[in-house]
Amino acid sequence: MTIALNKPVAPNLAKLIQYLEQVHDSGWYTNFGPLHQQLTERLERFLGVENLLLVSNGTLAIQVACKVLNVQSALTTPFTFVATTSALLWQGINTAFCDIDNDSYNLCPKHVDQALQLDNSYDAIVATHVYGNPCDVAAIQNVAERYNKKIIYDAAHAFGVKVGDKSVLSFGDASTLSFHATKVFHTVEGGAIVFKHKADFEKAKQLINFGIQMDGSLGEPGINAKLNEYQCAVGLTLLDEIESIIENRANLFQQYRAALENIVELPVWHPLASYNGAYMPVCIRDNAKLLKVINALNVNEIQSRRYFTPSLDVAYSEQKSFGCNNSQKLATSILCLPLHNYISESDIKMLANIIYEELK
Ligand SMILES: Cc1ncc(COP(=O)(O)O)c(C=O)c1O
């Protein structure tokens, strides 16, 4: 039987229907309805944040955050899902790449510092908590303060992650989430932005509703990025189970790490961070060995994905780059293994054994 790379969590159907009946009875399908309100409040409580705005996907979350913070140029990471960069480029933002840290695979604060010494014209730093592993938020904050830059974190992978006792979403001026079906928590399609400042949240709330202001008058032109009530119903249903989903995934992630730590290179985790088991990346720098592993997994009907490749400074080579050797090397060495709520510990043992046999 095929082992899937990812499998969306299925909401409990009976519970989902109860929420859908509420939508049906109220006739309120979208535009900040009662389920939208409930989901917002419950997410804020669960995540330990304020100023959370639901939006229709994680890509628009980045674009709206940039718009609200008036970002016209940004330094960003080349090692992330394409949406982090394409969202900036689609927005017409002058985007330049800085290299990642070789251990954590996240945007490297030292490289950002060096880039800003050479060119201080950028408005913002846009970094991703890759695979749910928090960036060095303290060092990025330090650089941003010294050069007076905004920070936006793409936290699409980092739902529920904490740094010490604080939500990872509480760092920076804004953090964005994706609630795509493949994510740890989902609303089929969807996302959110968590703003540091209430005023930014208020502005964003108008911008995602065409720019219509509270009194009905028109402000700055906006867009439609609202999350509808049907999708909120999925979110509310899944939120009831989210603690056990994260616990299960984090446990599976640790099983993997224990089985693989002496066989392959693994990302070095932020020392104060919790785990959400969003992804299981392994790094095999010898290309022939990497191809052998991929082949053996294929033969055993185990899905894997070279994620992320290519390095985005290569894909968008017309954009400025401050040199991204670490990212380019990693992009040809990384492989994500199956990790989702329905995989078993015995699947993981079997899979680790296949990798061991190929690399010993
Ligand atoms: C790091 C990252 N950023 C942004 C996105 C875009 O989110 P969405 O698919 O909800 O637009 C994703 C989605 O897969 C992602 O992994």
UniProtKB/TrEMBL annotation:
Active site: 183 (proton acceptor)
GO biological process, one term: polysaccharide biosynthetic process
Single GO MF annotation: transaminase activity
Gene3D superfamilies assigned to the protein according to its UniProt record, in alphabetical order: Type I PLP-dependent aspartate aminotransferase-like (Major domain) (3.40.640.10)
Keyword Flavoprotein: no
Keywords: Aminotransferase, Pyridoxal phosphate, Transferase
Designated name of the protein: Aminotransferase DegT
